[in-house]
Amino acid sequence: MTYELAIGDRSYSSWSLRGWLFFEKFAIPVKVRICVLYTDEVQRLLADFAPARLVPAVRTPEGEVIGESIAILETLAERHPDAGLWPEDPAARIMARYMVAEMHAGFTALRGDCAMNLLKSYADSAPRAEVLADLARIEAIWARARSRFGAGGPWLFGRYTAADAFFAPVATRIATYNLPVSAPAQAYVDAHLSDPSFRRWRAMGKAENLVQPSYYKPYAERPWPGPVVLPAVACDGPSVNAACPYSGKPVTHFLHLDGRVWGFCNAFCRDKTMHDPEAWPAFMEMTRAA
Questions:
Q1: CB atoms within 10 A of CB 260
Q2: Structural domains in the chain, sorted by start
Q3: pTM, to two decimals
């Protein structure tokens, strides 16, 4: 039973990230279809997801279409009750639903001034007072969830839930624009930046190499504040391996890492790995076994 998920550019589409995390973090099978934002590709893709008008959009295995992230989330939670999208505790579920709804409808200053851009991080973005007010509210509701239900792990309710998926793009905004937050809030941001699923999403966005000029700001830049990435570079073959670690197909594209050359079946497989090798378990397992 496989769903179809329509998304936009991985580096910029915050709502697409949320939709993808619903499937990725809770092991729900999905086929991803992607379009480039602000091009004719969007409407061509969404023609297969009518009546949805925006990404993300989902088609169920039975052919029903779901638009809007909250509707996607609730449908998946209803259809996959054992996946754990919502917290088990009833009081925690109430809080999580409230937080998700507020994120879906609110924080317009933060979202307007600090669009998601996973390709850049700025030293100082000089946030307006309205952005700082949004941050203060976000910190307050994060702290409330963590203090009551977060003892079991780094996430809002201990383990990862849909509420964390909803706030993942907020964490990236704090990272991109170097927004001022408290130490506990920064620890929660760091949990997102270190999460393997998020690292894979960001690596795929870098591999897509799409630039949306309207998302770029005239601020001094700094290195991305997430985990340091292993230094891999594209190169010529031959490689240690004959088959791609992801598809099993013969290799045609290559990268160099730690003195050895590794092969992949296409440029995207190579480039997503090159941009964060440790985020890809199949690749790292292959390097350890060779």
A1: 12
A2: 3-81 (3.40.30.10), 90-199 (1.20.1050.10), 233-289 (no CATH)
A3: 0.97
At 34 the three-state DSSP class reads strand
157: β partners:
159
**CA-CA distance, 167 to 171, in Å (whole number)?**
6
User: What is the phi/psi pair of residue 144, to 5°?
Assistant: -60, -45
Instruction: Say how far apart CA 74 and CA 59 lie, in whole Å.
Output: 14
Q: Which residues pair with 262 in a beta bridge?
A: 255
Residues 6+ apart with CB under 8 A from 73: 22, 85, 100, 162, 165, 166
What is the token pair recorded at 45?
Answer: 């893709």
pLDDT in tens, 233-247: 999 999 999 999 999
| Token code pair at residue 130 | 């309205």
Amino acid at 13: S
Give the separation between CA 98 and CA 134, rounded to whole angstroms. Answer: 16
Instruction: Name residues whose C-beta falls within 8 Å of residue 124's C-beta, 6 or more positions apart in sequence.
Output: 178, 219, 220
Residues lower than pLDDT 70 in the chain: none
**SS3 assignment, position 268:** helix
- For 107-156, how does the pLDDT look when each residue is reduced to its tens digit (9 = 90+)? 999 999 999 999 999 999 999 999 999 999 999 999 999 999 999 999 99
Structure tokens at 46: 């969404």
Distance CA 81, CA 69 (A): 18
Query: How far is it, in rounded angstroms, from Cα 45 to Cα 77?
Result: 25
CA–CA separation, 72 vs 7, rounded Å? 13
E strand spans, the chain: 3-7, 30-34, 57-59, 65-67, 233-235, 253-257, 260-264
